Amino acid sequence: MDAIAVSGVSRWFGDVMALDDVTVGFAMGRITGLLGRNGAGKSTLIDLMSGRAPTVRGTVRVLGSQPYEQRSVRRLVCAVSEAQPYPPAFRVDTVLTAARRFYPNWDDAVADDLVDAFTLRRRQKVGKLSRGQRSAVGVVIGIASRAPVTIFDEPYVGLDAVARDLFYERLVSDVCVHPRAVVMSSHLIDEVADLFDDVVVIDRGRIVLEGSAEGMRGAFAEIVGPTVSAMAFVDGLEVLRRRDLGGVSRITVRGADPSAARAQGLTARPLSLQEAVIAMASTTGGSQTRHDLPSVGVTS
C-alpha cells in the first residue's frame, strides 16, 4: 500500500484549475521527486497531502487516513516548505522544542548533530536568520522528525552548495536506516536526480510522467541528424519536441534505441532527468499524455 494515495483530485482557485483529476501514489521507503515548472501544481498537491488544505474533489489518503484536520495523522507527516511560517520572535531552540513535542518519532541526537553541522545558533531569533539559515532550520526539522511521511517543498532556498550537499547526504543516510516515504519538490533537478528512487512530473495540473528513476534512464533520447533521415528514424515513436535548423533536426523522443540511430548515421544521446522534464513540460497543447515508466525494485 502506498504511504500517500491520491485519487481523482481536482482543485480550483477561482477559474484557474491547479490540479486536474490527479491520481498518483508515493511509496513507503522511497524518495520521490515531485517535479515540474513553476505553477504546475506541485505546491497545491503538497498542501493537500500534508493536510494543510481540504480536498474538494477526489480523495487523499496518508497512511490510510485523510489528513485534513486530523491531528493524529498530521503528527505523522512533516512538511517543510520554502516559506515555512516560523514565528519571528521564536528562537531556534524554541522552534526545535515545539517540533520535538509534536512529532512522536523525533530524534534529539539527529537534531543536535544537524544544528552543529549547519552552524545554527540556538538562541538566535528566527526573524534574524538569513534565508539560508531558515532553510537549514526546516531541514533539521524534516530529517530529525523521522515522520513516516516527510515532504520537502523546495527546502534548500538560500543554502549554498556545501550546505545543500550536506542536506542530501544526511537525508539519504537517515532514510536508509529509518525508512519513510519522502517527497521532494525541486527546481535543481540535475543536482538532486541521484537522490530519487521514483519521479513524478506534473504539468498544468496533470501528472504527465510517473515511475522509477531507474526507468527514466534511457527512456528519453535526443536524435540529431538530417531532417529526412531523423524523421524517418523516429517514425512510429513518440515525439515530444522537434527543432529544425538548416536542414538538421533535433528530435526529443521516447523509446528510441540510440545504437540503432547511430547505425543509421544519426547522433543520439540519452536525456538527463532535467532535460526529460523540460521536454515533457514543453509539449504543446492541453492534452498531455501520461507516461508510466517501469517500476524497478518496488512491490505493491
Keywords:
P-loop_NTPase, 7-stranded mixed sheet, 300 residues, alpha/beta, Alpha-Beta Plaits, Rossmann fold
Explained architecture:
The C terminus is likely disordered. The protein has 300 residues and is α/β, with parallel strands linked by helices. It has 11 helices and 14 strands. Strands 5-6-7-3-8-9-14 form a 7-stranded mixed β-sheet, with helices on both faces. Helices cover 32% and strands 29% of the residues. Helix 4 runs antiparallel to helix 5. The protein folds into 2 domains: 208 residues, 3-Layer(aba) Sandwich (Rossmann fold), CATH 3.40.50; 78 residues, Alpha-Beta Plaits. It comes from Nostocoides australiense Ben110. This is ABC-type multidrug transport system, ATPase component. It holds the Pfam family ABC_tran.
**CATH topology group of the largest domain:** Rossmann fold
Q: Which percent range describes the beta-strand content? A: 25-35%
Total number of beta strands:
14
Global shape: globular
Please write out the topology:
Layout lengths: L3 E10 L2 E11 L4 E5 L6 H8 L7 E6 L8 H4 L2 E5 L10 H11 L5 H10 L13 H14 L4 E5 L7 H17 L3 E5 L3 H4 L5 E6 L2 E7 H4 L3 E7 H8 L3 E8 L2 E7 L3 H6 L3 E4 L2 H10 L8 E2 L8
Helix pairs in contact: 4-5
